[in-house]
Design brief:
Blueprint lengths: L1 H9 L2 E2 L8 E3 L5 E3 L6 E2 L7 H5 L9 H16 L19 H12 L4 H4 L8 H12 L2 H4 L1 H13 L5 H8 L12 H10 L3 H21 L9 H5 L14 H14 L4 H4 L3 H13 L8
Antiparallel strand pairs: 1-4, 2-3
Helix pairs in contact: 3-4, 6-13, 8-9, 10-11
Length: 290
């Protein structure tokens, strides 16, 4: 159903009346979208004024209203035919897992585009999950997150420091695995930009925001104490990683690369992938999964 809606929106067509009656299944069990009597096609660069001239109400012809209606329909499907009351929006007792609940809530309340909806963790299979762990886990700022986190703590504690000065202090006694000073610090600064001015300007938006988001998306989650949860199962984990979202991401990424995918362990914390997905969106990272 969502793939069909994606094709409509890519063609500039608003469905305008998504509900259970307009979803059919043909003899080959293919899902079909019907009921296009109220749809409107928006030409490139055209506003919704032509829809107004046709007599439609505003909520009838926006892509956003299609997504919200599709979210209601997803709930209807997964709950076995229940209708979601927007004012209440309580899905706790309807047999939906937290990933499905998050998908529905996101579609209804956060105005994502249809392509973004289809990248939600609810639709990730093993292949996509591995790709996400590798792609996001290999980002430079994720690789050097422990050092970046230290620099952010210094920057926050010592008012008046520039971003570059905070990084300098974080690496004052830091050596790489070959015993050399400066190499890792140089790489961390390169993540911020090519010049000192740019590095200082980007520090709060790239580094401090990353640490802040990682902390907020770890608070109260099932993985917030992941070290104690996993240490008995995986004795050889890097204890220097912070006990937050990105620390677990790096742990999963390393285990995936060196050991392989362990479905029981990698799916131990269902809200981990929800938080990772939100973090990637907030940071503006490439969320194009195959």
């Amino acid at each position: 159903m969502l793939f069909g809606l994606r094709d409509l929106h890519q063609a500039g067509v608003i469905h305008g009346d998504i509900n259970p009656r307009n979803i059919i299944i043909d003899s080959e069990e293919n899902v079909r979208l019907i009921g296009f009597g109220r749809n409107i096609k928006l030409e490139e660069g055209e506003t919704t004024a032509n829809a107004e001239k046709a007599g439609f109400q505003e909520n009838d012809y926006t892509k956003s209203s299609d997504i919200k209606a599709a979210g209601m329909l997803v709930y209807y499907i997964l709950s076995g035919g229940k209708h979601l009351v927007i004012e209440d929006c309580d899905m706790q007792n309807d047999g939906l897992d937290i990933v499905a609940q998050d998908l529905i809530d996101w579609m209804i309340n956060n105005d994502p585009a249809i392509d973004e909806v289809l990248k939600h963790p609810y639709f990730w299979n093993k292949k996509i999950t591995e790709e996400v762990l590798r792609k996001v886990g290999d980002r430079p700022e994720v690789q050097y997150y422990t050092d970046i986190s230290k620099a952010c703590q210094i920057w926050k504690a010592e008012k008046g420091l520039t971003g570059v000065e905070a990084v300098e202090k974080a690496f004052i006694d830091k050596k790489d695995k070959n015993g050399q000073k400066g190499a890792v610090k140089t790489k961390v600064l390169e993540i911020l930009g090519k010049t000192e001015q740019v590095q200082n300007e980007n520090f709060s938006e790239k580094f401090f925001k990353l640490c802040k988001c990682a902390k907020s998306y770890s608070k109260g989650k099932t993985f917030s104490k992941w070290k104690s949860e996993l240490s008995g199962k995986w004795p050889k984990i890097d204890k220097t990683f912070p006990e937050d979202l990105i620390g677990l991401l790096r742990t999963y990424r390393n285990k995936l690369v060196h050991v392989g995918f362990n479905e029981q362990m990698f799916n131990r914390f269902p809200d981990f992938y929800i938080s990772l997905h939100r973090l990637a969106i907030d940071m503006g990272w490439d969320c194009t999964w195959s």
